[in-house]
Design a protein that fits this description.
It is a single chain. By secondary structure, the protein is an alpha/beta fold. Helix content is 41%, strand content 23%. The longest helix is centred in the last third of the chain and has 25 residues. The protein is globular.
C-alpha cells in the first residue's frame, strides 16, 4: 500500500515531541508502573563473571550450551548487575514504515516508543544509542545519557528521509552491523514492521545470544484488513509497484486477510525460535496502555523463564 504522509501542520520539533510525551505518557507510566521499570528492562545491564552448574529456578536463557556439551552437565553463566544499563535501538526507517493514518504512521509510533523508552532509561542515569537503517545503514548514534541524547535520537529519526522505492527491505545488514558494533552486553530494541526479505533470522538469533533483545513491531490495521471501497490502486511502498484491486469483492478481502494472518504467524514462529520477545503496537493504539502491556508480558516471561 502507498504511504500516507503526515500533513505539514502535524510535523513537530524534537523538543515539542519530548515535552508532550513527558506530560502525556511518562507521567502516567510513573503512576501505573509505580517506577518499576525493571519489568521492561529485566536481564540487562549485566556483565559475565563466572560459570556454575545449573540449579532449579535458574534462568534457562543463561545456559552456556558450549560448556554444557563439553562437560556433559548443564552449566549457566553468572552475571553481576551493573548499575548502568546500555540500550541500543535498531530502527527500521524503510519506506513501508511511512504507512498509516494521516495523523499517525508506523514511523510516528516508532518515534514515540523510542523517545519514551530512551527517556525512561536516561532519566535514571543509563545510556542509549541507535543504529538507523533505511535499506542501508544510514547512521550510528553512540550511547550517551541525558535529555540531549533523547532529543538527538528524535531529531535523527525525523531527519532521515525515505530511500527511493525500488528495493525490498532486508534487515540482515542491520542485524549484522549490530553484532559487529555492540560489544558490551546490552538491551537491544529492534523496531520494525518486519516487511523484510528472508534470511534475517540467523543474525537475529546470534544477536539475542549476546544481548537482551526485544522486538517491537509497528503495524496498521489496513495492512491486514481492507475496507469495501470499490476499485482502488494499491502501491507497494517498498518497490513502488502499483496494482488495481476490487475491494468490493468479499473473496478478495478474505484472501488478503488470510495472507496477512499467514505472514503474522510466520513472524511469530521465527521470533519464538530465536527466543526473542515480540510486542506489537498499532497506529491506532495509545502508547500508555501499549507500554503497560509490554511490561506485563515481560514480567510473565521472566516468571516462566525461572520455572
Amino acid at each position: 500500500m502507498s504511504a500516507i504522509e503526515l500533513p505539514t501542520s502535524a510535523v513537530q520539533t524534537p523538543d515539542r515531541i519530548l515535552r508532550r510525551l513527558d506530560w502525556q505518557v511518562i507521567r502516567r507510566l510513573d503512576g501505573l508502573l509505580q517506577g518499576d521499570y525493571r519489568t521492561l528492562f529485566f536481564g540487562t545491564g549485566i556483565d559475565f563473571t563466572d560459570l556454575r552448574e545449573y540449579q532449579p529456578m535458574d534462568d534457562i536463557r543463561h545456559i552456556d550450551w558450549n560448556v554444557t556439551a563439553r562437560m556433559n552437565n548443564i552449566y549457566v553463566r553468572q552475571y553481576v548487575e551493573d548499575r548502568e544499563i546500555t540500550a541500543w535501538f535498531l530502527l527500521d526507517l524503510s519506506p513501508s514504515m511511512a504507512f498509516g493514518r494521516k495523523d499517525r504512521t508506523k514511523r510516528t509510533v516508532m518515534i514515540e516508543v523510542v523517545a519514551t523508552l530512551a527517556r525512561l532509561l536516561t532519566r535514571n542515569g543509563n545510556r542509549v544509542g541507535a543504529m538507523l537503517f533505511n535499506n542501508r545503514l544510514a547512521g550510528t548514534i553512540p550511547p550517551r545519557g541525558g535529555r540531549i541524547q533523547v532529543l538527538r535520537l528524535i531529531r535523527e529519526m525525523l531527519a532521515e528521509g525515505d530511500p527511493p522505492a525500488g528495493d525490498s527491505t532486508d534487515l540482515s545488514p542491520l542485524l549484522h552491523a549490530a553484532i559487529n558494533t555492540i560489544k558490551r552486553r546490552s538491551i537491544v530494541f529492534l523496531i520494525s514492521d518486519f516487511f523484510s526479505e528472508p534470511g534475517w533470522e540467523r543474525p537475529l538469533t546470534l544477536l539475542n545470544r549476546r544481548h537482551e533483545l526485544i522486538a517491537i513491531r509497528t503495524f496498521d490495521v489496513l495492512e491486514s484488513e481492507l475496507p469495501d471501497a470499490g476499485l482502488i490502486v494499491v502501491e507497494d511502498a517498498e518497490t513502488g509497484e502499483q496494482i488495481l484491486v476490487d475491494t468490493s469483492s468479499l473473496a478478495f478481502r478474505r484472501r488478503f486477510q488470510e495472507i496477512s494472518r499467514g505472514r503474522e504467524t510466520l513472524l511469530q514462529e521465527k521470533l519464538k525460535q530465536a527466543g526473542v520477545d515480540l510486542f506489537t503496537i498499532s497506529t491506532g493504539e495509545k502508547l500508555v496502555p501499549a507500554i503497560v502491556r509490554m511490561a506485563a508480558l515481560r514480567k510473565r516471561r521472566k516468571r516462566r523463564s525461572r520455572i
